Structures
1.
Amino acid sequence: MLSILEIRRQVEAGVLTPREAVAKALVSSRARNPDLKAFAALADDDGAFPEAGPLAGVAVGVKDVVDTADFPTELGSPAIYGGWRPKADAAIVSRIKRLGGAVIGKTVTTPFAYLDPAETVNPRMPNRTPGGSSAGSAAAVAAGLIPLAVGTQTGGSVIRPASYCGVAAIKPSFRLLPTVGVKVTAWTLDTLGLFAGGVADLAYALQAISGRSMEAPSDPGALRFGVTTMPHAGERSPDSEAALESAAKALAEGGAKVIRVDVPDAFGEADRLQPRIYEFELFASLEWEWSAHRAELPPRLAEALQSGEGVSPDAYDEARAAARRARLASKDLFSSVDILITLSAPGPAPGRETTGEARFNRLFTLLGVPCVNVPGLRASDGAPIGIQVVAPFARDTRALAAAQFLEQRIATLL
Amino acid sequence: MLSILEIRRQVEAGVLTPREAVAKALVSSRARNPDLKAFAALADDDGAFPEAGPLAGVAVGVKDVVDTADFPTELGSPAIYGGWRPKADAAIVSRIKRLGGAVIGKTVTTPFAYLDPAETVNPRMPNRTPGGSSAGSAAAVAAGLIPLAVGTQTGGSVIRPASYCGVAAIKPSFRLLPTVGVKVTAWTLDTLGLFAGGVADLAYALQAISGRSMEAPSDPGALRFGVTTMPHAGERSPDSEAALESAAKALAEGGAKVIRVDVPDAFGEADRLQPRIYEFELFASLEWEWSAHRAELPPRLAEALQSGEGVSPDAYDEARAAARRARLASKDLFSSVDILITLSAPGPAPGRETTGEARFNRLFTLLGVPCVNVPGLRASDGAPIGIQVVAPFARDTRALAAAQFLEQRIATLL
């Protein structure tokens, strides 16, 4: 699969038409999907896609919790939403189409974007989980079927599957991409994200879709990188610790200022209370499903809903106050460093009975700060290990510039 | 129509069954609706409503921008959404049902909750607008058909129609009532609200639906009331100015501390920029309708969308920064008073060619603070004039207590 930037170069040079580029993605997606199970729905024909615009020629997969007028939207729950057809496209789908992008299909999500595994295969490690909940988006890009996919992250559902599948991804600042028409599971957490083969593609796509400049600063190596293992997030695999060390070393060797930092205590407290916020909002968000279709909900989701029903408004408010304290503390932290570098996940992808853990992600989702997964490093057995780049709120451009610099530095190690 | 509190008293005393109470509301709603046009859809039978819970016996109308699995949801736009049937109930609908409330129908909204008038009649002044956009919710309660209705406010769509129709209403703090399943028109502004015959009913219903205590403090008369005509909001009718003076006098005569206050300059600036935020988010929210159904959109909405398409992210960010400054300024203001008292609208209901103006509401929606419309006062021609009670963010209980005190004081004038 060509990168987004290469597709655009060839289209602008007149050596590739948007229709050809999209048709190629559709053919390979159709061929591989029976094994990979990355798409919940795929377009039948390739005649109706746009021919012009900054995303013309770019085939896009959209997570199946995002409303589409042209495809079913089953939320990973055929039992409840089988064949469900929304009336309207979600805001991000309309936007991508207007920019010339070709939405060729819906990518597999875990049920209601929660922790019960989907059947998608990790193209890099077929016996491991692709991660969740944006399993299909990560896998479709990792398999080279499409150059761009849309996912959502409420805990760690963009950065974690990107790490496990070895692709680049960004969870932008909260609300940078409007979630209108995306199934709500937690309204203060749900965030749209993008997957692509590399960081430059992410920057190009995010600039087009958000309408905001994502131009990199002239010297991203001049940024101060704060490295942390996030002790409050719990254990890391030895391979992952080594990967983070390699990344830090590569940055320093590239001339960047690399500082070991401790994260503030308020981070640990907010991280500990994040599930309370998620479960309270999850219960309110899925109260209809809980009332009308309880028996058809998968076990981990049902357990979380049961737990959420028991969270009192006072307990929820207390957790939200802890989140506000952590947001203030992050401002202090980001006065001494420009970027945080940590792991994207506690280790490489675990087995298929799980979707892995969001321990390195959920705090940053709660803070609303931009996070980028930079792929390239691997465990001793070849499993991808992602490095997570985190910037202050609304500094998505800085996050992408730092991630691109890190990506280049990691390339020198390979 | 009995009040919610009276229905509950009679149900608990065993002199009224929930089924009887709901059947009565349904019969009168069916009888009056051909003239009043307050309901876009009404239940066919009354057999399936809940029989137990804190809202049992309470017939509820829900604005037709709120998803319902049992009724069509047409968003005031039969041209685009005619017969549209969502899969799931919105969060607030599921919650009301679980509390025993009987959702007997969908109330008329202006198209997409914007400014183009709906055909609903103002029961108090048939030649005037009922206000918008929650026209049917205000009218159905004002006509005594139902004791409780759900509306939404993005600019002034709860408080304004309540003022014009002479009913009580609350626009709670932003996010107190989850908007999951409510059509998004502006994600930082859209707020669910409630309409009822009086303030005590609002407090009872909001406590049940939010799960939060709304117990009034023992002496609401001890609150400091700051009175303002909100000069930045522009002209007021003489009748309305006189009504505000009467309200202030009644409060003072009741022993409350009444202070004339100037609102901070930051309020004027944020108010001036509010349309920029609304239109930017409106365009992103309705991009599908704009792309796929432009010719079927009504004129004022189409004009706002055209304007919204032209708002740059930088201009939007600038307006959001002004909103943040106004939120900070409101904290200062609320250190010297506990409650703000102002008008709910610039005057009594104008003619039917408009839905009136949100000049006295949109700033408070932008700030996210709780607002209550207290009815009772009238213009010289008998048209209702509402007084608006505003409290700091998350002080919904205080807003309701102050409103109830004002309601009692106004009753002494009548």
Note: Residues 313-336 of chain B form the longest helix (24 residues).
2.
Amino acid sequence: MAKSVKKKEEPVILVTNDDGITAPGIQALVEAVKGLGKVVVVAPDKPQSGMGHAITIGQLLRLQKVNFPGDVEAYSCSGTPVDCVKLAVDKILHRKPDLCVSGVNHGANHSINVIYSGTMSAALEAAIESIPSVGFSLLDYSIEADFSAATKYARLIVQQLLEGRSLDKHLCLNVNIPASPEKLIKGIKICRQAYAKYEEEFDERKDPTGKKYYWLTGEFQNFDKGRDTDVWALKNNYVSVVPVQFDLTNYELKEKLEKNWKL
Amino acid sequence: MAKSVKKKEEPVILVTNDDGITAPGIQALVEAVKGLGKVVVVAPDKPQSGMGHAITIGQLLRLQKVNFPGDVEAYSCSGTPVDCVKLAVDKILHRKPDLCVSGVNHGANHSINVIYSGTMSAALEAAIESIPSVGFSLLDYSIEADFSAATKYARLIVQQLLEGRSLDKHLCLNVNIPASPEKLIKGIKICRQAYAKYEEEFDERKDPTGKKYYWLTGEFQNFDKGRDTDVWALKNNYVSVVPVQFDLTNYELKEKLEKNWKL
């Protein structure tokens, strides 16, 4: 009985990101999901790009209620994107939200970037905690990026999920949107993660005292010829959707080791 | 011709961790692999537990040559465990090592912890870069932990890998060692990652000015009844070995979405 009453309640949508609560991308995402449920924002108080699945151990965390455009309930958090999800559930919502959306990230999170991305780690954290989730990223790093196509597709996908189609409690989607005018985007493609990565080279410099220091830099390279990958889809002006899992077991290799290891 | 000459060269073994270069665990791991190849240590200059797959963006990185017990070539790095691997390849070794080992971590990295662990993220980074790798973790958080069983099994596993059995360039193993006396350990089990995780609760406190702050805390819970998991193996006094992959695509869900989505 209690359950059926709950079903009719407005869904709760938790919004977070890794670019920080003041980033235009998170405002675009809130815009996208507005009206589809009760929206609560809990996002880092500063940029947290490249934080991966970091959590804060050995340091305290702060939460601060903040103003957010459109009168949306919002909190900034001193921790990582993953901390934001954990704190939101335990200390703000006091329940699991019905959906967690993360982004819209300023920059691509396709291929191997899913592993480094704070945006996607927040989404994956939600999925681990049995909260269906989606991370959205636009292939444009600039602060003035045009989020109109991202907003449109984010709304479409969230609507679809809230209607209950294919909604698994551990569902986690990595959605990337091409940096193209909306009318040029051909639609959505369900993809696998490409084996494509940055080939790093560190930029070596000397400080005024003569001591060396390094900047991470690199060039993106696609080693994957597949036409079913996120990189291919984006290159061909599709929105890419990769379902993501947190069971990292390599079952193929597991079988091989069971047969071949002499230990 | 050049290739066959290279084969006869001593293998290069890169050693890193997330507890920092002064942790007893990394000394135990260096002890374990000593004599099996040319050993080079590149590890964080401070503890980096829970850093996941974080990389340093927007901040410079430093490398410092340091003394390490047993006259081993060693460098401390101001960045994350993943930064250590990237910097080691580009700026210290100037080549890919033949193997990367990470740990021995002070504390468990079984089940979902593989995702939060800096130790395992360093190993996974190596695998992404086509360097076979193993992360080792001992189920004892204390600084005075007894690493003798860990050292024995780490050496066994590394020897096996260097002999070329099942050596894949993207191989990444997550090895956990029970906190039991060596004679009670029953051997090695190849496992899958358990669905087991910390159920978080934040400890809410007030600072001297009355403002709230939070500490992450939680209780470990195993939701997985399987007898083929790492958690099961460790509970039954086996060393657990989980082969880990960096393709996070959920292929089962991908198929389901391709059939069911109306977008």
Note: The CA atoms of residues 250 and 256 of chain A lie 10 Å apart.
3.
Amino acid sequence: MLYRLNKFIGKSSKTGPAEEPSANAQLLERAGFVFKYASGLYEYLPFGLAVLKKIENIIRKNLNALSCQEVLMTSLQPKGLWRKTGRWDDMAGVMYQFKDHSGKDFGLSMTHEEPITQMAARAINSYKDLPFCAYQIQTKHRDESRAKSGVIRGREFIMKDAYSFHASQEDFEKFYAVMTDIYQNIFKECGLDSLVVEAPGGSFSKVNSHEFQVLSPAGEDKILFCDKCQKAFNRDLFGAEDTPKCLVCGGELIEKVGIEVGNIFQLGTKYSAMLGCEFTDSDGKKQPVIMGCYGIGVSRLLGTIVEVSHDDKGMIWPASVAPAVAQVMVLSEDDGTKKLAEQFLAQAEKSGLALVYDDRDVSAGVKLAEADLLGLPYRVVVSEKNAGQIEIKKRTDTNTKLVDLAEVLAILNVES
Amino acid sequence: MLYRLNKFIGKSSKTGPAEEPSANAQLLERAGFVFKYASGLYEYLPFGLAVLKKIENIIRKNLNALSCQEVLMTSLQPKGLWRKTGRWDDMAGVMYQFKDHSGKDFGLSMTHEEPITQMAARAINSYKDLPFCAYQIQTKHRDESRAKSGVIRGREFIMKDAYSFHASQEDFEKFYAVMTDIYQNIFKECGLDSLVVEAPGGSFSKVNSHEFQVLSPAGEDKILFCDKCQKAFNRDLFGAEDTPKCLVCGGELIEKVGIEVGNIFQLGTKYSAMLGCEFTDSDGKKQPVIMGCYGIGVSRLLGTIVEVSHDDKGMIWPASVAPAVAQVMVLSEDDGTKKLAEQFLAQAEKSGLALVYDDRDVSAGVKLAEADLLGLPYRVVVSEKNAGQIEIKKRTDTNTKLVDLAEVLAILNVES
């Protein structure tokens, strides 16, 4: 994939969105990755979309390895099922709800427990059909009155939601523990260190959910961290307590701020009992299925990576999610230089490398600044000054290196 | 990718949706590819989603080869831009429109001329920035009062919409002709023969759009075809005329019925003039950009393929879009047979083949019927009867073949 910056719809600009001070809102828009269409509504330009797809594929790879099954449910939700669980009214504050032209009620989903439970019910008869886990990567909507923090909190966003179905609490707990590890792998592959945080999540026990928090001053969540036993807790678990102590070891807690990039919940039989998702156990008795639910904010991850990985010149993309491995520029018009550049581009394309080629008619200074702003892992400069060699520089290094064409390709192939 | 039918959320069933007689509605649901959630709302189970993704990737490959740039716009649309073009009111009959909790007006997009024109305007200054084409593959909504024909006409559906931007009508026309060919390639790769049909599309000339029709009795469109010059016309072009003649050669016209799988439009400067999408020409004068628009119904293609490619036993998937290349079953429990099956599955997985493995505890007859219903290109049977060889059968053949393991893999690798 070769992205040419000339005639490109994702052009960079000097300014970010007004009234959006967060680094991700500013840098993603300045670099032409996204465009703020309206409050909480972001459009994805080619680079932004390329990062989203790489994040999605990291998630897919990890979940498919666990034999999770990918599905796609609808965002348009008739009232029916949601009324059965009481969530049509409960969600009224955050769910867009409206009538179609014939007067029927619809909402836009922000989560899918109801439809997935109905879908699973069709596939489950006996305990032999369990366990399984299904997920989707889908656009969700939320009627946010105070959308902010760029793509971190939007009115329309991309989420991965997964739901698991089990015949016993023990089987569920095993899977929940595996998913906890898989989640940390996924964030790690996206270049993020995450903290598993105990959190309240419902009605049937104090701690029945976990959040995955990436520490960042741009976050909205307060986390209390125990230096002694390394456990972390959502501040909300402690109500109005002034100086809460660690719930596990009683140690002192340190307050940190994080961005919640994922969460996992024990649902128990809440939805399965209400919606008739049952299995026949080995004694021939009907039982409601035990469920878990597992979310990752895909577009939110894009913003989080920018929050934790940038400097004053621009973004710094981890190779795993960068829209391309290198930014290429040709800094002279003589025939030898152009020929070397063409050779490089042709061979890079052959080996499947994704590159950004700055073929705009602008100065070297503008191109160098653009490369820093976009923050791809490498910058490659072909210039007549370098006498047949090619200059390569890591975004995170200050030094450049002069190497021959074969070595540039070798370096880029390792990183992509 | 190995899909195991045991513990699978996409189980087949004996019945299709009530009141949906079309082949795609019946077969896709019976085979567990989709689930009709409500009128015009279909959920995609793993096989249905796998086909959608293959169709999407065929489209992407063809458009990327033309240097089209992929973006992603929002489905939630504030009223603002749509009011400027007059389409907020024009679309009121088919666009879901509602207010958020603060009273602001939003609609759910079914097309994106307004936002893409605004997005392009930011990237365009001079004629040197033109031409380019951007596209997205996105979920759209339409308030259909009579949703029918399975996934062919839905209230929520997946569409590829592309928009091109040009400095001259001549440049636009060249691109439009190229896109016409690319569209036919795309449908061909999906296993469909399409007819290019001249159609009315707007206000500034009689024929200013083209439809791509796949002939099928399940279609809703009447097409008049000229046997003499091979041109085809949408019936609507002729108003109330009783016996219309070919608009090109005056020949007799034959009526045919088709499913519209794509359409392309000349937009001229309609949107660019209203929304200020201008370029500076070589004389330094401001001009509105000339635009084209190009749609493909992605989920509709899924249904169309089933309409034209099935028999009384089930679906018949072209290899290019089949969710997997073969359905595998093991018809005995003895150790040698099981070992051979394991060898086959392991080697197939290694070479990246996608397979459906019917590991359910059901009879051979049920498994064979399932394979016909799902309609993958090949059926592979490992049975002790076959003394170390493996039985392979094409879905479209009646004969089976006994070959060794290496040959089965070779056959499947060619087709996938």
Note: The mean pLDDT of chain A is 95.
4.
Amino acid sequence: MTDLLPSWRDTATRAAILDFVDAVTDSDGPHFVPAGDRVAVFDNDGTLWTEKPFVTQLAYLLEQWKAQVAADPSLADTQPYRAAATGDLAWLGTAVDKHYAGDDADLGLLIKAVAGATAGTSVEDYQAAVSAFYRDARHLTLQTSYAHTVYQPMVELIRLLDSHDFRTYIVSGGERDFMRPMAEEYYGIPVQRVIGTALGLEYDADANVVRYSPSLDFFDDGGEKPVRIWARTGKRPILAAGNSNGDVPMLRYAQGSPASLALLVHHDDDAGRDVAYDKGAEDALAAADTHRFTVISVRDDWETVFPAEG
Amino acid sequence: MTDLLPSWRDTATRAAILDFVDAVTDSDGPHFVPAGDRVAVFDNDGTLWTEKPFVTQLAYLLEQWKAQVAADPSLADTQPYRAAATGDLAWLGTAVDKHYAGDDADLGLLIKAVAGATAGTSVEDYQAAVSAFYRDARHLTLQTSYAHTVYQPMVELIRLLDSHDFRTYIVSGGERDFMRPMAEEYYGIPVQRVIGTALGLEYDADANVVRYSPSLDFFDDGGEKPVRIWARTGKRPILAAGNSNGDVPMLRYAQGSPASLALLVHHDDDAGRDVAYDKGAEDALAAADTHRFTVISVRDDWETVFPAEG
């Protein structure tokens, strides 16, 4: 089994992962879990790929909003279109900060613009547009294709679980259909196992297509994650991995299983291989102590961070 | 492949099913569909098991409502609790008839009572209660266990599709978590592939469980079926099977695939093996002509209707 995690250093974290997989797959052992119940859930942004300088979906949306402003300049009177058109992204960070401080007015504008970028589009057309983005776009700071912005050790962990009959799911605050093409291509997680924030959908009987509505269905973060895990999988997971405050309920939910592993990726690398930050993870790091999450130190546990350029 | 549909008669319908499976699995043929895209969706009530004299979930709910009235007699002042307590079920039929006539007041009471039967219950406790019902209850008119109220030819069709690398899903107006235990046990369809009407859910962080809220999330019928198919599977199905008006959008949605099969079960048996009825299927039967659905005649296409008692 050792060969399956080549990008991991030989640390206690790696041993804890391998021990857990051994324990739940040992049919003679006390912690055995039948294959059908081996559900593993992964946050995406900051857990499976980098979320710095900002989440990839925002890079995509900025291009969409810029194009919308080009078509209708009056949009630039309001946010976040103005930010997209002028490249002054400070407003975006403020909107999120305000949200965590309890003021959702700017977040409301943001959500409206997120839904507005796809409203009326068929799901097939959106998948094609998103796939083209993944094919052509380059990451702002890493200057690589997005395929090279994934955390290689985590992809190896997904492969390890696959090879032991786990069903791996993405459970992310990111928008579900934006993640589907990359989850399949970059992680080998099929589209039906991607759970995320959901835009409203409507069936257009005349055209016989499903289209996005101008509304949000739900934001998949915090306590919504366990809810959506149950709705989709009908199981309580036995393994959960996250990196931020919004992942704590999902990690705790997994810990309610008789045998479980709760993994928290800590962005503590000081060698410039990965951006180091605790912002947005303060509660999660505190909860890691209280609830004995297994903390993955980027600095100490990962020999390699990103995949080698092909 | 012939042996896989032993309860079917040697008819054009059976040939159409076998030809379709041949065509989409022939990697050298013009209609080949890769395994990952072989998604098949099945309505449940009236398609995979009998929905007469009424849907099984109602049999379960009547017991729940009766117990609620026993605990709080004042509930019997309102419907549907009075109907449950007195055994006068006419009101229930009227509520549904009124709904189809555009008056949803009684349906609102019904939905409130459906959600009220589980509000505050953890998903695990509900699964245990539902599983006990399936183990112990007997069907009102067939006088068998519910395991023997499934349509044996349709179960064989699911097995045929399984053996050709389809992913089969339930897509039903029935409540999702009520169906999960029986879908797995009776059809071999795992819980993560059950799509249905969804009760609201909430994460209770203190108890670390997911519980039902007193609200309905969505009613999975009509145009909502294509929407929920996309949300869950990320695919347009290539095979859909239903039996009533609410299945037409799902059947049409499947027909938007380059190769597809839309199956409509017609309850036309006049030999007393199955209840014969067209009520609630009028539009679907008309659409079958217009859109060339493949109609499954219970009378002509099925040699056996229900599984033999074990």
Note: Residues 2-53+145-301 of chain A form a domain with the Rossmann fold fold (CATH 3.40.50.1000).
